[in-house]
Write a structure and sequence with these properties.
Layout lengths: L3 H119 L4 H66 L4
Helix pairs in contact: 1-2
Length: about 200
């Protein structure tokens, strides 16, 4: 017959083993639950990270397009700058031509004055010549007035052209600065992406 003490010890051991097994099974289940939660959290973080990276990549792409657009605008400003430079040179040439025209008009006035004097000396025979001389003097006076108006208009154009030229230069410099900053920002954003 079996020893009651051994049977009792065996039952105690079985009960202790069963309790320990239940406790370990419970701990394993708790660890499994924690592991699943950690995986889910990690997957969520990876998804959020991937979404953030995709958003950043879209922003970089948009920024790159804006940089390209600004580069085109900068080239437009450069063309305008060149055109304004040509316009300034053209105005200078027009001033020179107007000065030459003014000299011709003043010479015409002197010639018509001399013709009037000669017509007066010729008396009755110079009467027709005096009429032509007087008409030429009137035309020379109108030409002189036109030349003065043209000169004033050229000076106004000079002022407008110079102001516009300076605005274009300032605008071009601002665009170049903004473009450099955007390019720098774009490089920084691109370097912050994983795998870059």
């Amino acid at each position: 017959s079996a020893n009651p003490r051994t049977e009792s010890d065996t039952d105690s051991l079985r009960a202790a083993f069963s309790a320990e097994s239940s406790r370990q099974a419970s701990e394993i289940e708790t660890l499994r639950t924690q592991l699943e939660e950690a995986r889910a959290h990690s997957t969520l973080q990876q998804t959020e990270f991937a979404d953030a990276a995709a958003l950043l990549l879209r922003q970089i792409t948009d920024l790159s397009e804006q940089v390209r657009d600004l580069s085109k605008l900068e080239k437009t400003f450069e063309r305008w700058h060149d055109a304004m430079d040509v316009l300034l040179r053209h105005n200078d040439q027009m001033h020179g031509k107007n000065e030459q025209f003014g000299l011709i008009v003043r010479q015409m006035i002197i010639v018509t004055l001399n013709a009037s004097i000669e017509a007066a000396r010729a008396g009755e025979f110079g009467r027709g010549f005096a009429v032509v001389s007087e008409e030429m003097r009137a035309l020379a006076g109108r030409a002189e007035s036109l030349s003065a108006d043209y000169r004033r208009g050229l000076h106004e154009n000079d002022l407008l052209t110079t102001a516009t030229f300076q605005d274009l230069q300032a605008g071009g410099k601002m665009i170049a600065g903004a473009l450099a900053n955007l390019e720098r920002l774009n490089r920084q954003m691109a370097s912050s992406l994983p795998g870059r």
